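Mods, move this if it's the wrong board.
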Amino acid sequence: MSEYLIPKHSNSKPFATACAPDGVYFTLNNANQVARITYAKPPTFTWWTVPTPATAPMGLAACDYANGVPALLYIAESNANKIGVMAVGGGSISEFLTGSLPNKVTCSMADNRAYWSERGDDFIGAMQ
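Not the wrong board. Structure tokens:
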């Protein structure tokens, strides 16, 4: 087993992870960011800030598979009632309003769509 100290962030509260060909992505709940740690030895870290302040990013899923490789990451921005979408590899994060407090996100291999639970209501959300 290995553990990696997240540089430049104390009390960042990593919450969810998603694997992609270029590394493991994870949400930093207390830092309002998504980060990636590479598979290299030694690993390197990269950070992206969620555009809306204090969203408390929680759930994360890699989805939109083309030839078996994920193209997009879906981020549950729980405090802002939004789902963020970012390309695998990085870039800007687009945001979409949801019904209520998105929490956990997953990707369906059956229809290649992201689905999430809404902990503030009785709904399951889905990207169209």
